[in-house]
Amino acid sequence: MTQVKKFWPILTGIHKYEKTLSTRNIGHGQIIEAPILAYLMETSNGRILYDVGCDYEKINDLQKRHHFYENDEFPFGPPTMTEEQKMENRLRQLGLQPLDIDTVFVGHLHFDHGGGLCDMKHAEVHVHSKEYEAANQPADGAYFAEDFTGDYHWRFQDDEYDLVPGIRAIETPGHTAGHMSMLIELPKGKPILLAGDAADLTENIEQEIAPGLCWHDKEDLALASIRKLKNIAKETEACLWPNHDMSFYRQCTPFPGFYE
Ligand SMILES: [Zn+2]
Q1: Considering only CA atoms, which of 260, 198, 259 is closest in space to residue 223?
Q2: Is 150 exposed, middle or buried (0-12, 13-18, 19+ CB in 10 A)?
Q3: Which residue, of 4, 10, 50, 188, has the fewest CB within 10 Å?
Q4: Domains defined for the chain, CATH in brackets
């Protein structure tokens, strides 16, 4: 039986960029507004976060912002992240603080997913070993080495596994080398399958379109992961959630409301 009690999608920031970053070769000249999300799960065996959003300081400190975001890798500039969207303040709204998070599971280590690790030095941090390896090369310009160097309680993973009964890590490489999605069984409602950046938009899922950025340009690997997620969703009757889709996000239960 699932140990999950409650599930919250948490908006941690917004990024505007050309749609081609989400849908490979589709959407040139079209700027979209994408939510940057983290997901909190309360279980009978601790609290787990899937992703942690961006590092607030790298966006809101002018010098850091210039260093990290005002260069050729970021033609669309940095995301926005309000005071309210800071993880610490989101958790406060639930009567929690960062120390109350036991486990952080990072689907991949790009700046908009692993940036907030700096506030989670106490927690166990789960990441695929291939992801950590690629991030350290770095495989592309969306990795900020400063996000994941330092003292972390890493728990490197090489396979699919259950974090607790009811929460399963699923390998979905393609966007990045060691990308992981997550299947969450709720106590009452239908399961939720978090695609992570294996599928930014509903369009990626429905029309089977690879993300703009594919590790080593392996579009086939990314497409295989999208099909894998669709199959799992079908078998488990889960709702497959895209990760950077504003219209999908707007239909979700608004924070601090939750799913159970
Ligand atoms: Zn992302």
Answers
A1: 198
A2: exposed
A3: 188
A4: 4-250 (3.60.15.10)
Q: Buried (b) or exposed (e) across 41-60, using 16+ Cβ within 10 A?
A: bbbeebbbbbbbbbbbebbb
CA of 15 to the centre of ligand 1 (A): 9
Q: Which residues pair with 14 in a beta bridge?
A: 35, 80
Taking only the tens place, the pLDDT of each residue in 13-51 is: 999 999 999 999 999 999 999 999 999 999 999 999 999
What is the whole-number distance in angstroms between the Cα of residue 200 and the centre of ligand 1?
Answer: 7
Whole-number CA gyration radius for the chain: 17
Distance from the CA of 51 to the center of ligand 1, in angstroms?
Answer: 10
CA of 143 to the centre of ligand 1 (A): 11
pLDDT at 72: 87
How far apart are the CA of 236 and the centre of ligand 1, in A?
25
- Cα 8 to ligand 1 centroid, rounded to whole Å: 18
On whether the CB atoms of residues 79 and 55 are closer than 8 A, the answer is no
What is the per-residue pLDDT across 118-136, written as a single tens digit (0 to 9) for each?
Answer: 999 999 999 999 999 999 9
The tens digit of pLDDT for each residue in 69-107 reads 998 889 999 999 999 999 999 999 999 999 999 999 999
Closest to 166 measured CA to CA, from 148, 144, 150, 190? 190
**Strand-pair partners of 168:** 162, 183
113 CA distance to ligand 1 middle (Å): 6
Please tell me the distance between residue 190's alpha carbon and the centre of ligand 1 in angstroms: 25
**CA torsion through residues 33, 173, 184, 190, sign:** positive
